[in-house]
Amino acid sequence: MPIYKIRGIDVDFPFEAYDCQLVYMEKVIQSLQERCNALLESPTGTGKTLCLLCATLAWRKSLGGFSTGRSEWNGQIMGSQHSDVPHSQSAKTNLPTIIYASRTHSQLRQVIQELKRTSYRPKMVVLGSREQLCIHEEVSLLRGRAQTNACHSLCRKRTKKGYCGHYSRVSDFMKYNPGLGDDPIDIEDLVNIGRSNGPCPYYVSRELHKVVDILFAPYNYLIDRGNRKSLSVCWNNSILIFDEAHNLEGLCADAASFDLPSWLLTACISEAKNCVDLSISRREIEKANDKSCNPDNFAILRALLLKLEKQIAEVPIESKELGFTRPGPYIYELLADLNITHKTATMLIDIIEEAALLLEEDAKGAAQKTKSTICRLETMSDILKIIFRDGGNAHAKFYSVHVQEIEANAADALKGKASRTLSWWCFNPGIAMEEFSVLGVSSIILTSGTLSPLESFAQELKLEFPVRLENPHVISSNQIWAGVVPAGPSGCSFNSSYRTRDSLEYKQELGNAIVNFARIVPDGLLVFFPSYYILEQCVGCWKNKSHANSTNSSTIWERICKHKQPVIEPRQSSLFPSSIEDYMNKLKDTSMSGAVFFAVCRGKVSEGLDFADHAGRAVVITGIPFATRTDPKVRLKREFLDQRGLSQKEGCKVLTGEEWYTQQASRAVNQAVGRVIRHHHDFGAIIFCDERFAHPNRQSQISLWIQPHIKCYSKFGDVVFTLTRFFRDAGTHGPPQLKSRAEDRGDVNEMKIAKPLERSYEENSLTPLTISMDKDKFVKPLSSVLEAKRGNFSSQLGGVLPANCSSLTPYEQNQSLTLSSPSDLFSKKKSLLIPGRKIMQCSNSEMPYSFNSSLLGEKPSKEVLVTCTAKKRRIAKLDPDAMQNFELSHHHPFMVKNAQSNDHLANHSVKHDNSQLADGTNRETQVGSAMLLEDDAPKKDAEFLSQKGKGVQSSPVPCSDKETRGSAFLIQVQEKLSTAEYKEFVGFMKALKSKAMKIGQVLESIARLFSGPERLPLLKRFKDYIPAKYQSLYQQYLKNNEETIDTEESFSS
């Protein structure tokens, strides 16, 4: 396996790593070394989980070896019951424990599979619930608190009749199996151990987690305070990782909130009455004075609940839409009238737990051992714990009390009752995360494929995240089509706002567009709507016969069905598995050209499902999924953020209610878009059918890796044409067929040295990668790591290759090379190996092939500058014969290979009659040893701009006036544009380089970026960098912008 040295840590990675994977691992290790928090976004398919595991475990291993089985277990198991010191601390002498959390057990199962692919073998365990791990024939049938109480009861009673035999075997099993957890094990493995050897899987995991190096658990084990306190983990100095963390803020807020609807309170009252009757009956039968089943206690509980029900019913609600709202501390006033305070709440919780146990025993006696055994009273216990947490009320300032009246159900309507819900909503999700800081957690790493926008995410969680990353994808530009479709086939604008979404014209136009997409897109098509309401309205319209086209008797729905079989996401969660199965079955139907899944943003389809390859070739976003503004929770959240912003000191950065509202919608879009293009060989289209996506501010909130590929189409015909061509080309050629990385690993380990990014800057140079090259092995250099520091990941998208597919063939067997390989327009240099000549180092910054010689209509030069041993520079003719044995890869215009090699990665040949590359790029290059510094970026950008209208210089020259002006111009661009807009500006330049956009489209996009009075001078100055043949087109855009500004000024005056 390759070993990469990253920030001084040897990282053993199972495959040759992509550049973006190395950058990701560097950020993880930086966070761990500096004991700070990290916010890391990396698209699905970039190996995020594998990188996270390898980097974290490599760092942990550098502190000391992983826990070994016998040396720790012999002294721990037998003495663990009498030690007050957390076992993880005493066992490993303060070495940090890694806690790896994900949302679901199915996701954790995938993480364990990734761990098995690595060379690291830390002691580990996965925590699961009794519901998943219990193998007791009776207790395993129960659920919730009933199962927990039954388990506790059986484990404490040491009678033959009531003792759990599985629990009794745990101690001996752990003693004689000290190596358990040394190899990756999953929940299923623990269950199999229990069934075959007898020990309880649940308590085996609970014993094992005391001495592990890495602990895997679902979110709720960490966010829920009760679950967290049950863990024997030394939190001080520990590492906390939240994978798939895009919903973490919502989960934290929900975990600290509660809703108490009328029907639930009524059920609690009924259960309290049952407890009174049961306790009286038990006392009469047993004739015992058992205080634990005192009917008076249950009668008091019932009376309090009745009084609470009455109080909620009497709350004055003037407007059903607005409900009744009070600040968070009001909840204590409400409960004080019931004599429920911090002191009495504890007693009340104990009574509720007794009631739950009594109801459970009664259910057993009635042979009701079913999965539906639920005690509603336990909900009241949870509510009291949330309200009276930490014995104080300081947290109440982050809450709001709300009472909402809803439509009464039939039973309440007959009784004349109003159906109401008492809510206590937490609007500061940082409450849960701040607790980890108090516990002394060293680093918290949050990662997901869709965290953008990062700033709002950090502000919501109230944590500092000094380390941040928005990684690019590993795909190339020919594997993605992304476009904004502002209007449909008839020219009707697409806008799903409440003003237009109900109009017949909008729904028909959207339907006709989807008919076209269903015809063009092969295999699976995903169509996401902002809400179930809009989905149902549109489908209903499309099925309506009266809305059929006058020239075509078929309805829109029937026309869609001619191309693809439809599936609609159901509202009911219970029906969702069958709808997924239906979709997959329809995809397999060879009589049709695929299936279309109509789904909803924030729904089941948009969360965590993998529509790779043919399952999802395109995703259509039909609108922006804003939450309902009038929803009480949304309204109060916005008010809370706005009020907090007013109370902050001037200069402090705060998240406003409107920003939160907008960014929540953007994050939902990113989640839906992330269902397609799931790995580095995948390809697909992302279609934004809403004119609002054309706005730069809206695009800046789309995941960064998508932004450079997004184009705005003014005509629907252009969409159809380019989309058809995309799938035609992708279907014919497909993504590059690369050697499997497993095959390319070989038996020889290699050391790759990736120097720290910060050190590279301190030295003001990019230290190249030095490798020892075997005959059939070559790796991709790491120079694009420097670009990660600048955040210009958009520039890498077109050129990132898997590291096992080198851009160069070794010139000589076992030859040691120093390579520095650029992957974007504005960076570094690259070595070309020419037979019989010195290694030629080509500066891409001097080869601006987005405005190349072919585009400009100039003749290419046949001269290159070759480095001499005396460190002088000379001009040398490039011998065409010397080049005929080389081929040009379709991945990168400078990726060459020896024709005699057996590895066929390239398919474009170099012409013999000139030195021009297959895409028209001039070979005239500068060769030298100078490295590009971060501070040189504006200068290099200026060189790029200044060379558009002329041939490229063949030798280094001092900065001319034109270059100086270009540098000044770029500085002005950076000042006038936001960070996101400047990235977009650079992205357009890169898209032009990869020929993803034509110069006309680039000019249109630049004109849009430079719109407005304050940016008009930038657009005027951009004229200096436009080739003469395109000046007329440029003038049109300039004139349009000037006229628009004049019009706006006349209206304002």
From TrEMBL:
This chain belongs to the protein called: Regulator of telomere elongation helicase 1 homolog
Q: Which GO terms describe its cellular component?
A: nucleus
- Tell me where in or outside the cell this protein is found: Nucleus
Q: What family does the database annotate?
A: Belongs to the helicase family. RAD3/XPD subfamily.
Q: Which reaction does it catalyse?
A: ATP + H2O = ADP + phosphate + H(+)
Q: Which UniProt keywords apply?
A: 4Fe-4S, ATP-binding, DNA damage, DNA repair, DNA-binding, Helicase, Hydrolase, Iron, Iron-sulfur, Isomerase, Metal-binding, Nucleotide-binding, Nucleus
For the Helicase ATP-binding domain, which residue ranges apply? Answer: 7-313, 29-287
**An individual GO BP term:** regulation of double-strand break repair via homologous recombination
Origin: domain of life: Eukaryota
- What CDD domains does its record include? DEAHc_FancJ, HN_RTEL1, SF2_C_XPD
Source species of the chain: Vitis rotundifolia
The record's InterPro entries line, in alphabetical order, gives: ATP-dep_Helicase_C, DinG/Rad3-like, Helic_SF1/SF2_ATP-bd_DinG/Rad3, Helicase-like_DEXD_c2, Helicase_ATP-bd, P-loop_NTPase, RAD3-like_helicase_DEAD, Rad3/Chl1-like
Q: Name one GO molecular function term.
A: DNA helicase activity
Sequence intervals crossing the membrane:
none
